[in-house]
Amino acid sequence: MTTSDVRDINELRSVLDRDGYIVIENVGSTENAEKLLSGLGSILPQYDGRKSHEIVVTPGFEDLLHSKTSREIYVHTEAPGWDPVPQYLALYCHAQARCGGGHTTICDGRKFLADLSDRERELMYDVETDFPGAYGTQGKDGEAEWTVHKPMVSRDVDGTEVIRFSYTHLTFGDYTPDLGRDVFVDRLPLGEEGIALAEHGTRFFNDNHLPVLVPDHALLIWDNRRMFHGRSSYTDQRRHLTRFFVGA
């Protein structure tokens, strides 16, 4: 695991370009985290319009695959329905789980792309997929406010690949699905082929991910346009992290 006390922005960018992620220890506060992240790019609003999102078990989300539960969260990149997607995601840890779970799991998406079959490569590079997006309502009884039509792998203005991937979007047709809802395959973004691709992504992720238990008062940053992430389930409801989105 890449762990550092680095504060120099150029060095930080170098590590992120090389490894895709970094854990910075002894950051000390969300204010310090925000100040550090603002050197990488602009702090973007969360889905509800606020500049940060508190990841802590919250009543009312029990039936959803959502960050505010203690459930496992499946492999995905963040905000695929935004264009551009956030360049970086960051988690500042107030209190980590002490139960043996609650790991943030990350994996290099570029390595998954190298593992694709010819047909899977067509699906990810050539087939435009509908990615719904929203502010304020996404994640609980909300309707999409717009839809991004892009392949799962596109390129940004400098030619760098941008990966959009969501197991739940491909298998439920929703980023944070209600687990009791019926699923109709013909309404899914890529139908049966999308389900098979999502299952391949999950197998690859399970075999290759790095489990990160962010230390208290530390900051995990990763490249959201490259890295897949998820979370292991946990029982320690004291776990509390703050999430930031950072633009390029």
| Architecture per CATH nomenclature, i.e. the level-2 architecture | 4-Layer Sandwich
Shape: globular
Beta percentage is 25-35%
By CATH reckoning, the class would read Alpha Beta
Question: Which H/E pattern describes the elements?
Answer: EHEHEEEEEHHEEEEHHEEEE
- Span of the ends, CA to CA: 24 Å
By secondary-structure content and strand pairing, the structural class works out as alpha+beta
Q: How many domains comprise the coordinates?
A: 1
CATH topology name: Double-stranded beta-helix
Largest beta-sheet characterization: 7 strands, mixed
Number of helices: 6
Number of strands: 15
Q: Mean pLDDT, nearest integer?
A: 93
Assign a percent range to the helix content: 10-25%
Radius of gyration: 17 Å
The CATH superfamily label reads Clavaminate synthase-like
- Low-confidence spans: 136-141
What this model shows, in words?
The relative contact order is 0.29. This protein has six helices and 15 strands. It is α+β, with helices and mostly antiparallel strands and 248 residues long. The longest helix is centred in the last third of the chain and has 18 residues. It has a single domain, classed as Clavaminate synthase-like (Double-stranded beta-helix), CATH 3.60.130.
